[in-house]
Amino acid sequence: MFVSEKQIEIRYAETDQMGVVYHANYLVWMEIGRTKLIQDLGFDYAGLEEQGYLSPVLDLSIQYKKAMRYGQVATVRTWVESHSKLRTTYGYEILHEDGSVAATGTSVHTLVKKDNFRPYPLSKVDPKWEAKYLEIAHT
Q: Pick the catalytic residue: 16, 40, 98, 115?
């Protein structure tokens, strides 16, 4: 299974009054991880948008396990959990420096044409990208 990793230094602005990372920041980190995965595979999401396609989130799930705090470094691990004709599910683990799990999650995406928001298969836009996702998908 191909897993991409991205380290993120936790900034003070990402924490709440208790000094704990605010829950919505994990969403941002998941997006950063997803972008890194795509780059690591040699593809370019911004290029898809330039061609007139978007990849909206259909579903998102996060399970919080152990709080993270300002000054720590989070490692975001991202992989393709599954891929079908019209949906891609990404998996995530966000880890503390000692390897303990801070959060896990998944996000489900589809590809749509920007002008009409109709689903469009990745295979018709970029067959190499499609083949790579099918090759590395966990399930």
A: 16
Domain with 22 in it: 4-136
Residue recorded with tokens 């990372």: 21
> Does 16 participate in catalysis according to the annotation?
yes
- Looking up residue 42, the CATH number of its domain turns out to be 3.10.129.10
3-state SS, one letter per residue, for 39-71: HHCCCCHHHHHHCCEECCEEEEEEEECCCCECC
Q: Look at the chain and count its residues.
A: 139
CB neighbour list of residue 39: distance below 8 Å, 6 or more residues apart: none
Please give the tally of structural domains in the chain.
1
**In the structure encoding, which two tokens stand for residue 3, read together?**
């897993």
pTM of the predicted protein model: 0.96
* Per-residue pLDDT reduced to its tens digit, 16-32: 999 999 999 999 999 99
* CA atoms of 139 and 131, how far apart (whole Å): 14
* Integer Cα distance of 76 and 7 in angstroms: 6
Full DSSP string of 84-134: -SS-EEEEEEEE-TTS-EEEEEEEEE--EETTT--B--HHHH-HHHHHHHH
